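Run Trifolitoxin immunity protein through structure prediction, thanks.
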Amino acid sequence: MSDRPDPADRPAGVDAAEPLPGGFIAEVLRVGDSVRRTAPADDDFVAALLAHLARTDLAPRHLGTDEHGRQVLSYVEGRVPWRDREDPAYFADPALVALAGLIRRLHDACAGSPLAGTAETVCHGDLSPKNTVYRDTPGGPLPIVFLDWDRAGPGRRIEDVAFAGWHWAELGDGADPAELARRCALLCDAYEGRAEGLLPRAELLGVMLDQIEGTWRGISAGADRDEPGMRRLRAAGAVETVRGWHDWLRRHRPTVEAALDLA
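Sure, done. The structure for Trifolitoxin immunity protein is below.
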């Protein structure tokens, strides 16, 4: 006999909670047209940011907090590439150009706002394919919405662009430094459009290296503090993998900068 409850026993009008893919750090459930997830440490800032972005359609809507203290967000239809490289179209040039446009819209919407304070803008802080919703178009899947705003905060435009640069490219043994440079250049060109000079491109690789180092060190330190999510990441080999990316980029930095004409 199964211990699982029979759906017929659920009270009328009550939606079942459906676990969503991902959620490596935070629990993520879909309940009807909403998503319930572990609330971030600064949920007030995230709620204010999502309210500020409500007219842009760049993020889910913040719907409050449920009886379990979880963040309640609107559900966004689409596809999320949870498994790395599951479909090359997610990483194709048209998707990368569209990604740059989304990042630019986010930064332009927040620049000069009280949320940014004295900073240049508000950054998402954790841009990756797994935090991005795609929809199919005649030209292939294109990104439409960013998820997981837990690490959002005031920052510089170059920070999100650099973060996207190494998350939408291949790093490590076997990767092509020239291809990383090409993708970064495409991302920067599409982001800036006619506003040349908006990004300090000479800082791109330095920012990227700092982010990658901060990632593996952060996972390691969090695991040492016995944080469950960080322990799972370290056990899965994330520290070694990301540290390997950092070492690879340091070795190939001159090649990437030369290809970007930054040397």
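Residues 1-14 have pLDDT under 50 and may be disordered.
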